[in-house]
Amino acid sequence: MKRKLLSLVLVLAMVAALFAGCGSSSSSNKVGVSMPTKTLQRWNQDGDNMKKQLEAAGYTVDLQYADDDIATQVSQLENMINGGCKVLVIASIDGNSLGTVLDLAKEKGVKVIAYDRLIMNSDAVTYYATFDNYMVGTKQGEFVRDALKLDSAAGPFNIELITGDPGDNNARFFFSGAMDVLQPYIDSGKLVVKSGQTDFDTVATAGWKTENAQNRFDAIISANYADGTNLDAVMCSNDSTALGVTNALEANYEGTHSNWPVITGQDCDIANTINMIEGKQSMSVFKDTRTLAAKTVEMVDAIMKGGKAPINDEKTYDNGKGIVPSYLCEPVVCTVDNYKETLIDSQYYTEDQLKK
Ligand code: BGC
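A: This is the predicted complex of the input protein with beta-D-glucopyranose.
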């Protein structure tokens, strides 16, 4: 009798455990967040914001950084898929390298949101959350145009160009946005690119790395500006490349030339914001990662609850398999004149973080 009772209790306990497993299993509301690297400030902020906001919305989060290594990102994604994530939020290292792992996601019914960078040639991408990348570029181009007064000053002015990683679809949008503004001035001779380096592949920076930008720029300075010729502007697509340019100029230009060029950037990284305050970088395009995270959480929520996510663009981002419905957040120009309102009043940074 006692034994029968014991086995009945055991069976009941097993059934209860089974039901609990179905309903509250941590995997049923698990979201995988895959970020490219910890070495660039912005992705740490993106990861933190995503995790914080997803957890606040009740989701369990598996957040991974892939050390800018494609194989690492692929294996982290495999683990997320096999570990029961229902949605993957991915900022890809190389937008062209995730096709196979995303086929697995699709097979298992896992939905994918491309975060900030579009994932190419995969039909497994449900949504794309990003900033208006073309607008980032036009804002940089317009800044150079206005700072040099290209429409009224006689010129000519010397400019050099530097953009991002060729495997990042964004880099092409940034560059073409900027060049659509600047190219007419190059064509008319008002802007001169002394190095002659103007096509995307030549001005690209592998891995968006500061060091690579710096090396290329060292060579540009010594070949074209070492004779004392002034460089008037450098159109840099983001802050990590702008930092490389600034380092090169500090080493081989400052002190031997009568000016300091206009330098553009993007992200408002701390080091670059300090450079703006010190007059070494003219602008950066601010992309509030909190806003992007909030939009992405809305997308995750819509997918999880079977609804439709907010999107505001259904024409721009074709990933080779069709248009990916997107939400484009708006980038903002940040300079020494508005960084306090933009970055400190909005509590993106504290005043102390911007002290050298
Ligand atoms: C992002 C930029 C960032 C760059 C390098 C791009 O995809 O949109 O904000 O500066 O990658 O990480």
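The longest strand covers residues 125-131. Residues 8-27 have pLDDT under 50 and may be disordered.
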